[in-house]
Amino acid sequence: MKKAPVIISLGGSLIVPKAGIDAAFLKRFRAFIAKRVAKGGRFVLICGGGSTARAYQKAARAVGPLSREDVDWIGIHSTRLNAHLLRTVFRKLAHSTVVKNPLAPPSFREPVLIAAGWKPGWSTDYCATLLASSLGATTVLNLSDIDHVYSADPRKDPKAKPLEYIGWKAFRRMVGNRWDPGANVPFDPVAAKMAERIGLEVKMIAGRDLAEIGKALDGKPFKGTVIG
């Protein structure tokens, strides 16, 4: 029986920052994952929407009012576009289809499986948590453009401190219980509730720091935050 794959939630801000698709990062990330695969690693990579989602949402709002569901669907399809980009980048290593339903991932022999958003009300953090549960994984690596969870919003509170560890109860007190499309929180509150229930550990790491990601994969101390 194969061991459970590593679940990596790849923030859309890494794939498509404000300046556009970051091909240089994707090239580095592909090489990093390929080296891990060569050593027997298996990965599920679930993609966020990034600036693509925000650009489409902004354009739609400029034309007329949007419902919450409209905002969600734009974000979901942005994650799917990014996922197809990633599947193309990982063509030689990845399963041939992109996973949309995290409750029914395919049985895959390839070392990499690419996933995207599913339906309104479900963030990719929540999908990553569901995929971990479905595939027997106990840890999710959450890669984004932030390096830690902070004691407060560092953009608003100059005294905010980076945290190396925070328990789920304390984390959920910080972020609340409701998820909002485009909400700027380190990890979706709804996903956090489920992660606490199933005993999942989430490692928050700055996604462009591949050396620190490697340490986290190896179970070594790393620069970032463990939520668990």
Summarize the structure in short.
With about 230 residues, this protein is of the alpha/beta class.
Describe this structure in words.
The chain has a single domain (6-227), classed as Carbamate kinase (3-Layer(aba) Sandwich), CATH 3.40.1160.10. Helix content is 41%, strand content 15%. The chain has eight helices and nine strands. The strands form two sheets. It has a seven-stranded mixed beta sheet, with helices on both faces. A two-stranded antiparallel ribbon has the order 5-6. With 228 residues, it is α/β, with parallel strands linked by helices. The mean pLDDT is 91. It has helices at residues 12-15, 23-38, 50-63, 68-89, 124-135, 168-175, 189-198, 210-217; strands at 6-10, 43-47, 112-115, 139-144, 149-150, 162-163, 165-166, 201-206, 225-227. The protein is globular. The two termini are 27 Å apart.
Give start-end ranges of low-pLDDT stretches: none
Gyration radius (Cα, Å) is 17 Å
The number of domains is 1
Reading the helices and strands in chain order gives EHHEHHEHEEEEHHEHE
Strand content: 15-25%
Q: Reading side by side through the largest sheet, how are the strands ordered?
A: 3-2-1-4-8-9-7
**Number of strand segments:** 9
Relevant CATH superfamily:
Acetylglutamate kinase-like
Mean pLDDT reading:
91
Assigned CATH class: Alpha Beta
Shape: globular
- Give helix % range: 40-55%
Helix-strand category? alpha/beta
CATH architecture, by name, is: 3-Layer(aba) Sandwich
Characterize the quaternary organization of these chains.
Answer: single chain
Number of helices: 8
Report the sheet with the most strands, covering strand number, pairing sense and barrel closure: 7 strands, mixed
Q: What is the CATH third-level topology name?
A: Carbamate kinase
End-to-end span in angstroms?
Answer: 27 Å
